[in-house]
Write a structure and sequence with these properties.
Elements (H helix, E strand, L loop, with lengths): L3 E5 L4 H12 L4 E5 L12 H4 L9 E4 L2 E4 L1 H11 L11 H14 L8 H11 L3 H26 L11 H15 L8 H10 L3 H6 L10
Parallel strand pairs: 1-2
Antiparallel strand pairs: 1-3, 3-4
Helix pairs in contact: 1-3, 1-7, 4-6, 4-7, 7-8
The structure holds glutathione.
Glutathione binds next to helix 1, helix 3 and helix 5.
Length: 216
């Protein structure tokens, strides 16, 4: 019987990925909200930073084990729990899934993180409009490349007709894109795949607006 606790934040796309993976594998978990803005950012409090010195969410606790990094957490779930494998075990598809997921989670997401935005405000004196342009620029650059790659990789989902880690990373990134006003009509394949994924029960349950700590 799993004893899983997820420290996250309703709007965190990295935590959103892990929620989707847990739901796809039908694993129950306890959710502990870490408010990234309130109290100067609860991720910086000792109670949290003692668990993850990077001061970023998510952290998954499984019994004695504490893990950070959403992609590693999802690998851990793939390797230790039943349910659909989000990264195929072998073959070319394994590396396609890993590389497309990393295109999103490593090349696009971190440059638009809260702490990057805070640095741009405080140290570079960027105003809200400049920060918005920054966010849109990096998402659009990443999505233009991804759109080209999905032209050959996609079926119903990002890679063929099975849900994979790429889909788990894409939906939260599109959530961010829409939040920051990226014109998604420039990315018809991404839009087509996301439309299908968004009504899947595991994705619906993981959506930011459906989290107990959702706070608009
Ligand atoms: N590479 C990490 C990224 C984690 C991350 O960037 N988390 C963000 C939320 S999506 C965060 O905690 N930000 C807090 C901050 O920037 O202070 C992962 O995939 O888990």
């Amino acid at each position: 019987m799993a004893n899983l606790t997820l420290y996250g934040y309703w709007r965190s796309s990295a935590a959103y990925r892990v929620r989707i993976a847990l739901n796809l594998k039908q694993l129950d978990y306890t959710s502990v909200p870490v408010h990234l803005v309130k109290d100067g950012g609860q991720q910086h409090a000792t109670s949290y930073s003692s668990m993850n010195a990077s001061e970023l969410v998510p952290v998954l606790v499984d019994g004695e084990l504490q893990l950070n990094q959403s992609l590693s957490i999802i690998d851990y779930l793939d390797e230790n729990y039943a349910g659909p494998l989000l990264t195929p075990e072998s073959g070319d598809r394994r590396y396609l899934v890993k590389s497309l997921a990393q295109d999103i989670a490593i090349d696009v997401h971190p440059i638009n993180n809260l702490r990057v935005m805070q640095y741009l405000s405080k140290e570079v004196n960027a105003d809200d409009n400049q920060k918005l342009n920054w966010t849109r620029h990096w998402i659009e650059l990443g999505f233009h490349a991804l759109e080209k790659k999905l032209a050959s990789a996609s079926g119903t989902y990002c890679v063929g007709d099975e849900i994979s880690l790429v889909d788990v990373c894409l939906v939260p990134q599109v959530y961010n894109a829409e939040r920051f006003g990226v014109d998604m009509s420039a990315f018809p394949i991404i839009q087509r795949v996301v439309e299908v994924l968004r009504v899947h029960p595991a994705f619906v349950k993981a959506a930011p607006e459906n989290q107990p700590d959702a706070d608009y």
